[in-house]
Design goal:
mainly alpha; 16 helices
Amino acid sequence: MSTQPYRTHVKKTFLIAYPVMLSQLGHILVGVADSIMVGELGTQPLAAVSLANSLFGLVLMFGIGLSIAITPLVAAADGEGNTQQVGRVFRHGAIINTIAGFIFCGLTVASGTFLPFMNQPEQVVTLAVPYLNILAYSLIPFMVFQTFRQFAEGLSFTRTAMLITVSANVINITLNYLLIYGYFGFPELGLNGAGVATLVARTLMAIAMGWYVLRAQWFPTVGRWLAELRSSLFVKMLKIGVPTGLQYIFEVGAFAAASIMMGWLGATALAAHQIALNLSAVSYMVATGLAAAATVRVGNQLGQKDFPNLRRVGFSAILMSLALMSLSAFAFITLNHWLPSLYIDELPVIELAGSLLIISAFFQLSDGSQAVALGALRGMADVKVPTIITLIAYWVIGLPSGYGFAFGLGWGPQGIWIGLLLSLIIAAVLLTLRFHLITRRKQERYTPVV
């Protein structure tokens, strides 16, 4: 097999990645739309959204990580031409994700009972709990959607998920407008209206994605659902999905913990944090789109035992992330006060959010490269050591440093974000280095001696 030039890999990766980027942006824009529209209600409701989404995001991202186990296994089986295994992975993944959706819903509702004990502003907690409970039920259809989406992505079919997600986002924004403010005869539900809109949109997403996949000509025969289950495949998928979910939790959880610390500094700090986090999440979704494409393409090359091209797939995706994330860094620096003004018109919140965006601009490159490196490693089913790396980077180094900067040195909200910056730099360096070392070793092992 010939080694393809980097420009060829860039093109192939981008064609898979851009629909995933737009699809991921659609997911995060649900939260952005909620925040912008709720921001019209004032600082307290916006702070409540921040608090609730911080907890909800932990469960949501773990669910995404769990479901991602489908993608590399489908991609590798497709690379081998093993259609029977493709169908088998889908069947087992659907069972895992459906059960997980109900479990995640219950855990999210239960987590709301702990909010009053997190030393948060009382009014913020009062608003956050019912909103969080509504969001919890959206996890069930979301996990069903993820099953069909990750399966389709494993076979490089990514555009339909993008179209469905974007369409659902339009529905979500429309329902936000109607239910938050009570226009055109709809009930005025305030913050809870945003939660109902998200629940409806995600339910429609699951129905549409399931209809598309099950009717597709490329959908394999999955066999009898219960008669052909294999415990070994369940274990294999969980060994990929659970560590991947933990990787997401360690990163998103660090930002959630930062939200808790921001709450100790008051509603203004929490609202500013929510705005900066929302905007940073938008750019991060671009990186996760590239990461998903890297997972698919690396998994496919792994199935073919083509390690020279596998290395080029990974490194070309990392270089693409650096280029794209530099654009968001430039936007955060030049528009650091204008962007927060889209959310709220309270000057103290805008100024603080603007200063946090400057720090976010500095960690765009490292955030993008660590996400893509994780995706490339995931394509090779290498998840254990990367999970340990993320744990150390965020929870052993980043968060304690942020706490020390904020409360020990008196740097306030900016200190918390500097700690996050440090953790992302460490994760990016170590994960990229691991991809380099593992792939070089595999290439040397499988390269024939002339």
